[in-house]
Structure formats: structure tokens, C-alpha cells
Design a protein that fits this description.
Layout lengths: L19 H18 L3 H6 L3 H14 L2
Helix pairs in contact: 1-3
């Protein structure tokens, strides 16, 4: 099955658009994930895994404040 995007599309530069409702749902899911991950200061200093989830949530919240 061939994708509608084409075989050679570079998704790195793709733009995703979400409705306000979808964005709120994403923020809530990120908040729940951060709560369950329970990041420590050490996790945040490593700037990997958990840090990336936390910072993605912060950016999403800022853009939709």
C-alpha cells in the first residue's frame, strides 16, 4: 500500500495542525505521562528521554496559552 505522502517525502519538515480540542487532549496526555514518569532533577540534567517529554509539554503549553 502506497502512502498518500509519497515514498520520498521528508517528514522532518512536515507541519502538523491540531484543533484546539486535540491540542488540549495532547497536553493532558503529556501531563499524565510526566506525572507517571516522575522526573527527578538528575533526569532533567541528563537532557534525554524524560527531559524531552517535559520540555515538549512546556513548549506545547506555551504555544497554546
Amino acid at each position: 500500500m502506497k502512502s498518500d505522502f509519497g515514498a520520498n517525502m521528508n517528514l522532518e519538515h512536515a507541519t502538523l495542525r491540531f484543533t484546539q480540542s486535540e491540542t488540549k487532549e495532547l497536553i493532558q496526555a503529556f501531563e499524565e505521562a510526566v506525572y507517571l514518569l516522575n522526573p527527578t532533577e538528575e533526569d532533567m540534567q541528563k537532557k534525554a528521554g524524560v527531559y524531552r517529554v517535559v520540555t515538549a509539554l512546556e513548549k506545547l503549553k506555551e504555544k497554546n496559552a
